[in-house]
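Record 1 of the preview.
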Amino acid sequence: MSFSLSHSWEVVRFLLSNLRWWMEEYHFDGFRFDAVTSMLYHHHGIGTSFSGNYSEYFGTHVDEDALVYLMLANHILHRLYPQCITVAEDVSGMPGLCRSIEEGGLGFDYRLTMAVPDKWIQALVGDKSLAFWLMDKEMYTNMSTLNAMTPVIDRGIQLHKLIRLLTHSLGGEGYLNFMGNEFGHPEWLDFPRKGNDESYYYARRQFNLVDSEHLRYRQLYAFDRDMNLTEDKYGWLAAGQAAVTTLNQADKVIVFERANLLFIFNFHPCNSYNDYRVAVEHAGKYPFTRDLKKASTS
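->
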């Protein structure tokens, strides 16, 4: 989306009135502004790697007309509907995106950082779930506890847990699961279109899977539940930025500290380690928390 306020004021009025219509007619709780990155910059974020340098966010490549529109949209929504929540889907990390307009920000309440899921897979509409990428067709036949655990399912489930915990603890200040809570639903979400003969067959999420006691989806759910309860106890999402002390590509080990906790991840496919030396900020004994032990080994 790209436009100029000086030449397309009718478009701006239509967009703003459209926001108000949805609020007046359907009493929405708020809006998620999709693909905000493509609006903020003339290059639409294509072929650009955002490292955090201020020169990436301020300059002639920034679409000032789009900035003004987003500020107007947030100003109108929050002024007329104080209960309204606005969320910006952004991969760039534009400074001030969630600061108030009075402070020179764009006025959003929250930022949905889509750069994190793209670190694992290219999360596109109609794509397969992360669990399906890890376990593929075996999810249709080997997710029952009545069958012996296969190497693919065993490895896939453990990686699924590690990926979620690493993202949760290191990713930022909030955590949002994918639709259906992403407990490994084997079907991907595909809306009716010409390519699938307008079929509704895959336009669904199988929420019932987690309720089946003999399926291993319950293990994925148990881990997600305990992970969130553990965060409630220690509060790492509200803590400062994590300090990464070890990033060993050969050993596939990453170590970081956050919220007075020491996180140690081993992603090596076959190596486990004893007496592995890591740096810590404070000397002393570090007890092992058992909040996630049961869920991680089940």
